[in-house]
Specification:
49% of the residues lie in helices and 15% in strands. It is built from 14 helices and 9 strands. 42% of the residues are buried.
């Protein structure tokens, strides 16, 4: 049987243009991290016009390479090109995103993580067929460091100032001297921030990844909080201790193979009237709620990192980065928590508070 399809030339042309834009974005992602590593954006952060030769001199690089890099940035809309003087400008608004790690809107570290994440592509070809997972420890080290850097910006902006105060009675307990478990702590950015804010309390970070725990211990010593912060290698349902006033899962719950088991363990080790908190990527409960630029980023990380990570663990729940509040709530309640509420939110995160019956 012959099927005749009528091609809409306008739609075809528009889609070809869209794909060309996507191809350019894919190539520029690597060049953004190069610009970050070489200090090219930071050298333009004063907002003044700069020639390729000037920028090369400032950064100790070669003009011919810098010229091509600047042209990609201009074509991508990351910098502006002034044809009259043949110079390039990084606007101050763009500098806050690309050249300042202290900025709450910095996104440069996300490129570092994304570039490292795509390195797993060859492994995923086989895993898509076999159904096996890819553990966090199997990824390029740039993913670990990019995640620490990116999440650290978000945590410095919101964790102590907004998220913890949104939880019932938690700040008062930490000010008085509480005990906190940070589950899936990675390099310890969240653990250390809380320790700096609440010197009377004690904090224990847990992660199955030995290399991350080693780095976390170094970070705690550098921050001067090693007297009240410790880090241990342990899974989300295996760590020791009890009487925790707060058990926290910062951007880690959806990565777990057995989130219900992790919730059950958290419920068992909490102190009376203790609190469990989940900070998770913002997501709606329906696919169509997440078909937007942010959802695209999160689904991308989910396919490359989070879902394979869960599939590499016992339980293989594979909640995914866009799990949504309903599925997270269901897992917490199945683990024994009676009350789950949305305590706070940002454009990037959902914050859920879970308490025992």
């Amino acid at each position: 049987m012959t099927i005749t399809t009528t091609i809409d030339e306008r739609k075809l042309e528009e889609f070809v243009g869209h794909v060309a834009t996507e191809l350019g974005a894919a190539l520029n992602a690597a060049l953004v991290t190069l610009g970050d590593e070489l200090g090219l954006y930071r050298a333009m952060a004063d907002g003044q016009p700069v020639t390729p030769a000037d920028l090369a001199t400032r950064t100790g690089t070669q003009e011919r390479y810098v010229r091509e890099w600047l042209n990609v940035q201009a074509a991508s809309g990351f910098v502006l090109y002034d044809a009259a003087i043949e110079a390039y400008v990084l606007p101050p608004e763009h500098a806050l995103v690309l050249a300042d790690d202290t900025s709450p809107v910095s996104m440069i570290a996300d490129f570092e993580g994304a570039n490292a994440a795509v390195a797993v592509r060859e492994q995923l070809v086989e895993r898509f067929v076999s159904g096996e997972g890819v553990g966090w420890h199997e990824h390029h080290h740039g993913l670990w460091h990019g995640t620490e850097r990116s999440f650290g910006i978000n945590y410095r902006t919101h964790l102590v100032a907004e998220w913890l105060p949104a939880l019932h009675g938690v700040v008062a307990r930490l000010q008085a001297g509480g005990l906190v478990a940070d589950v899936g702590c990675g390099h310890g950015a969240s653990t250390i921030l809380m320790a700096q804010a609440f010197p009377a309390s004690r904090f224990v970070g847990f992660d199955y990844h030995e290399a991350s725990i080693a780095t976390a211990r170094e970070r705690a010593a550098e921050a001067g909080v090693a007297d009240r912060v410790s880090f241990e290698v342990a899974g989300a349902a295996e760590y020791g201790g009890d009487g925790y006033d707060l058990v926290a899962f910062f951007d880690s719950f959806h990565d777990l193979g057995d989130p219900v088991g992790a919730a059950r363990h958290a419920a068992q080790v909490l102190a009376p009237d203790g609190t469990c908190v989940l900070v998770e990527p913002y997501a709606g409960d329906r696919v169509e709620d997440n078909l937007n630029p942010l959802g695209r980023v999160y689904y991308g990380f989910s396919t490359l990192v989070c879902t394979p990570g869960s599939l590499s663990q016992p339980g293989r729940a594979a909640l995914g980065t866009q799990a949504g509040e309903a599925r997270l709530r269901e897992a917490l309640q199945a683990g024994g928590f009676g009350t789950v509420r949305r305590a706070a939110e940002t454009p990037l995160n959902l914050v859920l508070e879970a308490r025992l019956p």
